[in-house]
Specification:
alpha/beta; five-stranded mixed β-sheet; diguanylate cyclase; three-stranded parallel β-sheet; 271 residues; Sig_transdc_resp-reg_receiver; 51% helix; diguanylate cyclase activity; Alpha-Beta Plaits; 9 helices; 10 strands; EC 2.7.7.65
Length: 271
């Protein structure tokens, strides 16, 4: 039985059929273990029980057995109940996948794969609250692709999309797993860095700026390579209770200065 549970966890099974009258092993314990493991938690269990074992059968249903058969087992009834449980499992998986896809679509930018503005605005408030409670800094930068309209006008919107996708890839390579990267809209992006002060965030921003400017972007399925630069406005949340909107405005003001001063640069604004 223990080996069977191991195989159930390692394999992609549609149904577990468990006897509640195993020799030298508690079938109920096997069912309970299957329900406690992440890999087998959603796998339906069909229990086989003796007719006079009603108490154990009820206990099995309580711990998550989906259906049961009483001995002597009729082959056709066993096949019918097995098919029913497998159909339900597959239908449930289908519904779960649809829900997960819907959630991902609601919070993800379809073009770049980064989180979208809606997710950023809702999650940023949580990150700011956590930073205030823990007394930790929180850095935020707004990034804007320089002369992006000219890229679209010169090379076409497909090339512009290529640039946005590659830009998102380079962002991911430049930040940590705990950082939040979002497409804010158009050619503007936001990166939120928990537990990061202005000095460290400035080094990250400068490294990202250099990675963009230092390697041309490939567009038109590899047919052209174009130089792209970015401007970055950077600030931090370091005051308890500071409004997230004020932090965004300060970063946006720093971004405006970066563009006004000639683009392809990082400008920091202290809190």
């Amino acid at each position: 039985p223990s080996e069977a549970l191991f195989h159930a966890a390692e394999g992609n099974y549609d149904l577990l059929i468990v006897s509640l009258s195993l020799d030298n092993f508690d079938g109920l314990r096997l069912c309970s273990q299957a329900r406690s493991l992440e890999r087998t938690r959603q796998v339906p269990i069909l229990a086989i029980s003796d007719a006079d074992n009603n108490a154990r059968l009820m206990r099995g249903l309580e711990i998550g057995v989906n259906d049961y058969l009483l001995r002597p087992v009729d082959k056709n009834e066993l096949l019918a109940r097995a098919r029913t449980q497998i159909r339900r499992r597959r239908y449930t998986d289908h519904l779960r996948d649809n829900v997960q896809n819907s959630i991902e679509m609601a919070i993800t930018d379809a073009l770049t794969g980064l989180n979208n503005r809606r997710y950023m605005e809702s999650h940023l408030a949580t990150l700011a609250e956590q930073a205030s409670i823990r007394g930790k800094p929180l850095a935020l930068m707004i990034l804007d692709i320089d002369y992006f309209k000219a890229i679209n006008d010169t090379y076409g919107h497909d090339a512009g999309d290529d640039v946005l996708r590659e830009f998102a890839v380079r962002i991911r390579k430049s930040i940590r797993g705990i950082d939040l990267a979002c497409r804010y809209g158009g050619e503007e992006f936001v990166i939120v860095m928990p537990e990061t002060d202005l000095h460290v965030a400035g080094m990250v921003a400068e490294r990202l700026r250099r990675s963009i400017a230092g390697e041309p972007f490939t567009v038109d399925k590899g047919g052209k390579r174009i130089t792209v630069t970015i401007s970055i406005g950077l600030t931090t949340l370091e005051r308890k209770g500071e409004q997230v909107s004020d932090v965004l405005k300060r970063a946006d003001t720093a971004l405006y200065r970066a563009k006004h001063d000639g683009r392809n640069r990082v400008v920091s604004a202290a809190a």
